[in-house]
Design a protein that fits this description.
With about 220 residues, this protein is α/β, with parallel strands linked by helices. It is built from 11 helices and 8 strands. About 55% of the residues lie in helices and about 15% in strands.
């Protein structure tokens, strides 16, 4: 299972890389806006420091605009994956870009048939948003189960990125189902490592070790 970091924050990406937990990065316009910096500069830096796929999202809504943006984004580096929204125009763009050898990540997927259509169009990745479904009282992980089964039925090579992750249980469930990738906010990435009993255990071992000093 690959871990991507879901952020446009350079410090978080660098820390995640140091932790050895960054197989790739996903960004979106909201995450870039949060940084309050020149987005073009931020994008260029992310593409240059990450040794893995970096998803960058188009902001055009029409086929022609999406294709043009995708071509200039993909020229930024061999690791760029262009994020295209799941719309009729988007699916048309994915077909064209796939023929041109440009990698795409179809985003804002909320039901399994959208993922099937994106895979048929030649998407390299699909991004089902599970947290946003949970937020409206739908079981987000249910669509991951369905997409894993559907892609398996037909042998699609499109990879599933579990997106809109809110907590470690989302990552655990995605791993149990066998999703290819989880894209994880930095705070959740850190939560994956720790456990209070690990900390208590270390303290107890060190305290017991200290008692040996009095015996020497
Ligand atoms: C995925 O590619 C998106 O950037 C992200 O996971 C959206 O998450 P959110 O629902 O927390 O905004």
């Amino acid at each position: 299972m690959k871990f991507f970091i879901d952020t446009a924050n350079i410090e978080e990406i660098k820390k995640g890389i140091d932790m050895g937990l960054v197989d790739g990065v996903t960004t979106n316009p909201t995450l870039l806006a949060k940084e309050k910096k020149d987005p073009q500069e931020v994008i260029r830096e992310i593409v240059s420091i990450v040794n893995g796929p970096v998803s960058l999202e188009v902001i055009s809504k029409d086929y022609k605009g999406m294709c043009e943006e995708a071509r200039s984004l993909s020229a930024l580096g061999g690791n760029v994956v262009v994020k295209i929204p799941m719309t009729e125009e988007g699916i048309k763009a994915v077909q064209t870009l796939s023929r041109e050898g440009i990698k795409t990540n179809v985003t804002l997927i909320f039901q399994p048939l959208q993922a099937l259509i994106a895979a048929k169009a030649g998407a390299s990745y699909v991004s089902p948003f599970i947290g946003r479904l949970d937020d409206i009282s739908e079981r987000g992980m249910g669509i991951i189960e369905d997409i894993v089964m559907i892609f398996g039925n037909y042998g699609f090579e499109t990879e599933i990125i579990v997106a809109s992750i809110r907590n470690p249980v989302h990552v655990l469930e995605a791993a149990r189902i066998g999703a290819d990738i989880a894209t994880i906010p930095f705070a959740v990435l850190r939560q994956l490592i720790g456990h209070p009993l690990t900390d208590i255990g270390i303290e107890r071992f060190l305290k017991d070790w200290e008692t040996l000093k009095n015996k020497g």
